[in-house]
Amino acid sequence: MKRAGIPTEEFIYSGHTACPGCGALLVARYLLKVLGKNTIMNIPACCFAAIPGTFPDTCLGIPLLYNAFETTAATASGVEAALKIKGKKEKINVVGFAGDGGTADIGIQALSGAIERGHEIIYVCYDNEAYMNTGMQTSSLTPKGATTTTNPLGKKGGWRTRNKKNMMDIVAAHDIPYAATVNPSYPMDFVKKIEKAKNTKGTSYIHAYSVCPTGWRYQPELGLELGRLATETGLFPLYEFENGRYIINYKKKTKEVLEYYKLQGRFRHLSEDFIKEVQEYIDKEWQKLLVKEECSNR
Amino acid sequence: MKRLEKLVSIKDLPEAPVSNVPSLNQKTGTWRVFRPIVDKEKCIKCSICWRCCPDISIEIDNEGFPIINYDYCKGCGICAHECPKTAISMDREGK
Predict the structure, then answer these.
(1) pTM
(2) A257 min Cα distance to partner chain B (Å)
(3) Where are the transmembrane segments (chain B) (predicted)?
(4) For residue range A116-126, what is the model confidence (pLDDT) as tens digits?
(5) Hey, is the C-beta of B47 within 8 angstroms of any chain A C-beta?
(6) Quick one: what percent of chain A has pLDDT higher than 90?
């Protein structure tokens, strides 16, 4: 049964210890609603290792396996291989659920290996753009201009000067059967993509936008508003990569990066010239994506 | 005094610890600064507040109105911000 466009079943209990307004929780909630109770989750050190609560409490209604930081995809492929050998008849979804550091920095070789071997797992990276669980250290998915505790603001700058790594391009280079970006501000799109990932034969990679009121320094009630702005400005475009073809799901790039940047405390030091530079970069990336879509569908 | 048993092989170690208690005994409602209150006259029963609650503390009753569970609501205010009819107001706790 569906209500307001998403399934009504819940697999996460109240009483978890996420911060008020947590985006990762919404990602996990929508994900498990679609995947259902036949799911095994693998989690490395990330915010979600702390969210279920202290032993013996857990906020999840499904089996959960904690593993070392760099081994999410490796553990998930091991679980999938074990299920195959055990000869389970019903379909069991194996999910690797890692943060951006555990995906793009520390766990990238395990993820690359799992995609290359073609295990039937769903790898979800919830991207909150820094190592938020340990206190906001810069990761390779932190956007340009943001301050974190390892890029502290000083008199001569100090903020992050490199652009965000494009994880979707990295997994697309593996010729993955299915990869998609999802945003909890667009729940129907989210549900549709997870259903596709569930029915994919082979590895699927989901890159989820996940707001973090603590690390990004904004008012928690603006969470979903920020998500919509990120997609409408082109900072987090919604698209899929399916069997070698790019499909953009949301093509209205109507807003300017400034609108998104001025809501967050981590960007408040930036000058207008700097934001203009970011805007130029984002426009270029958006054009690249449009060309990719056109060329791959020829 | 009883001495500790000597651990020789991996079989002497306990199996992996298993958590199986639902987290419902942690009443996270004590974190709240602002309390959401639903105005039933303005509500159009769209269930958007239920959909966007990160604490899963909003339930929908038989008539379709949202009921907020104050035991777990952390008062983030997403429901009030997303409500299309501004039927949810955030009042300061302790007033």
Answers:
(1) 0.93
(2) 22
(3) none
(4) 999 999 999 99
(5) yes
(6) 88
Tell whether A9 lies on the interface with B, counting CB pairs under 8 A. Answer: no
- The CATH number linked to A204 is 3.40.50.970
Dig out the tokens for A248 from the structure: 């953009």
CA distance linking residue A245 with residue A283, whole number of Å: 21
d(CA A127, CA A215): 12
Structure tokens at A165: 């790594």
Cβ atoms within 10 Å of A111's Cβ, excluding its own: 29
Q: Which domain holds residue A282?
A: 2-296
Residue A221 to residue B81, Cβ atoms within 8 A: yes
Tell me phi and psi for residue A167, to 5 degrees.
-65, -35
Domains identified in chain A, total number: 1
Tell me what the pLDDT averaged over chain A comes to.
93
Q: Which residues does chain A have within 8 Å of residue B28's beta carbon, measured at their own beta carbons?
A: 14-17
Specify the CATH number of the domain B39-95.
Answer: 3.30.70.20
B71: which chain A residues are within 8 Å (Cβ-Cβ)? 14
Inter-chain contacts counted by CB atoms under 8 A, chains A and B:
112
Q: What is the pLDDT of residue A212?
A: 94
